[in-house]
Amino acid sequence: MLVYEHMIKDPVHGYIGITSVEKCTINTRAFQRLRRILQLPTSVYVYPGATHSRFIHSIGAMHIAGVFGENIASRFKLAGREEGARLIQYLRLVLLLHDIGHGPFSHSFEEKILYPLNTNHEIVGSRIVGSDEEILSCIEESSDLGFDARDVSRALTAVSSEDWPVLGFSGVDQDMEKSLFYILKGPFAADLLDYLIRDSYYTGAGYGLGIDWVRIARNAVALRKRLGILDKAVDAYEHVLISRFHMFAAIYYHKTTRAVEHLVGRMLEESNAYIDYKSIVEDPSRYIDLDDSYILGNPSIRKLESCKMLLSRKIPYTVVEEKRIQIQRGSPLSLLAINRNLLNKLLIEELGKDFEGIVYIDTPHLPLNPMLKEEEVLVISGDRPIVKRFEEISFGTLSHSVAIVRLYMDKAHLDKRERAVKAFREIIESSSEETLRSFY
After folding, report:
1. How many other CB atoms are found less than 10 A from the CB of residue 377?
2. Whole-angstrom Cα distance, residue 147 to residue 158?
3. Residue 120: exposed, middle, or buried by beta-carbon count in 10 A (0-12, 13-18, 19+)?
4. Considering only CA atoms, which of 188, 257, 202, 193 is closest in space to residue 404?
5. What is the pLDDT of residues 96-136, one digit of tens each?
6. Residues in the chain with pLDDT < 70?
7. N-terminal to C-terminal alpha carbon distance within the chain
8. What are phi and psi of 63, to 5 degrees?
9. Residue 427 CB: number of other CB atoms within 10 A?
10. What's phi and psi for 118, nearest 5 deg?
11. Residues 48, 79: Cα–Cα separation, whole Å
12. 8 Å CB contact between 423 and 358
């Protein structure tokens, strides 16, 4: 198997072994930048301990992927062979580099800067891996790997198992190999498992602590283009689903965190006047200069009112009304839950132009399903895979998702609160499928 020549002490996983190619990659300028990208850049304003970075999360995800790889290599009968080490090393490098394309303020940057440029952090990360001379040198000079930087780069942009690069392990069907995609993006992916545990630890919220990720990794089974889990580990996976639900509700979708995100979004949009993001995003050698301090340290941006408020934690918005909506599959309320722009259009039409910039509706939408697009997980009982929907894993039928619909208002205009709340309630209570569709 792999030879770990170095060790990193991680507060979450303990000692993490590092191979020579991983150490080389970690020490590149592109990867070191992740030290300066916070994992929870807006949650840190609510949970002061959440100062951990994408850097350590990526190393943690790599570690978990290695355990998945050891299990899969054994099931493929590659354990103890050079090809087994190749499979494990490939998975570890993919997960090590999976977040290398994240920009300052992570998902806020993606929504406000990358999406309007028709790209995302996976595509940017793929470009970095495929062009950065230091990373290329680390991977290409390790001639015994059996794969190259292009294989890693292609994995980062895979959106389904169909896109997963096939390395061609002897005796392993290509469709079976494609199931490895789910270790990167899946119902119990290494990325998901690490961030739930790590974010729980650093925020102090605790919901993800105790997730038995090793049990999940050791009981994952590769099927044709799918990754299943043995029924004896379903209880551990149940913990993942419940933890994820509470982590989103209490941390990622915390009402103040979302208000900070709105403020960060404003600042990023206004920063377009001072930073040519398009040219930077298109040039990976310049993109790796971007980090949180690149934005906050820009003298012109620091003069923006939105930046001043962020730096002093003077959040101008407060929640004046909230409605949690349990959504079952196929419900017309699902349209309501995911269309923030529609709700804000309805709100301003009801209140008038005078309320623009004073109120807004936020609609964080929490699906139970971590995969979003795929609705099923394969549970293997004996020799038989059983298809189960996410809501029906083992603890009874739950809602398909929950929408936390909130009305925010500028604190300086709370004298208009009563009118705004009345309009908000009318919109939420009277919206029907026909009404919603008429606005598309």
Report:
1. 27
2. 17
3. middle
4. 257
5. 999 999 999 999 999 999 999 999 999 999 999 999 999 99
6. 143, 328-338, 367-375, 389-400, 431-440
7. 55
8. -60, -45
9. 22
10. 60, 40
11. 43
12. no
Give the amino acid at 369.
Answer: N
Do residues 225 and 178 make contact, with C-beta atoms less than 8 angstroms apart?
yes
The whole-angstrom separation of Cα 92 and Cα 64 is 8
- In angstroms, the CA 117 to CA 278 distance is 7
Report the alpha-carbon distance of residue 89 to residue 423 in Å, rounded: 56
Backbone angles phi, psi at 10, to 5 degrees: -115, 130
| Contact indicator for 26, 99 with CB cutoff of 8 Å | no
Q: What is the 3-state secondary structure (H, E, C) of the chain?
A: CCCCCEEEEECCCEEEEECHHHHHHHCCHHHHHHHHCECCCCHHHCCCCCCCEHHHHHHHHHHHHHHHHHHHHHHCCCCCCHHHHHHHHHHHHHHHCCCCCCCCCHHHHHHHHHHHHCCCHHHHHHHHHHHCHHHHHHHHCCCCCCCCHHHHHHHHCCCCHHHCCCCCCCCCCHHHHHHHHHHHCCCCCHHHHHHHHHHHHHHCCCCCCCCCHHHHHHCEEEECCEEEEEHHHHHHHHHHHHHHHHHHHHHHCCHHHHHHHHHHHHHHHHHCCCCCHHHHHCCHHHHCCCCHHHHHCCHHHHCCHHHHHHHCCCCCEEEEEEEEEEECCCCCHHHHHHCHHHHHHHHHHHHCHHHCCCEEEECCEEECCCCCCCCEEEEEECCEEEEEEHHHCCCCCCCCEEEEEEEEEEHHHHHHHHHHHHHHHHHHHHCCHHHHHCCC
Nearest to 281 by CA among 97, 136, 153, 125: 125
Q: Which residues lie below 8 Å from residue 97, measured CB to CB, with a gap of 6+?
A: 25, 31, 58, 125, 129, 135, 152, 156
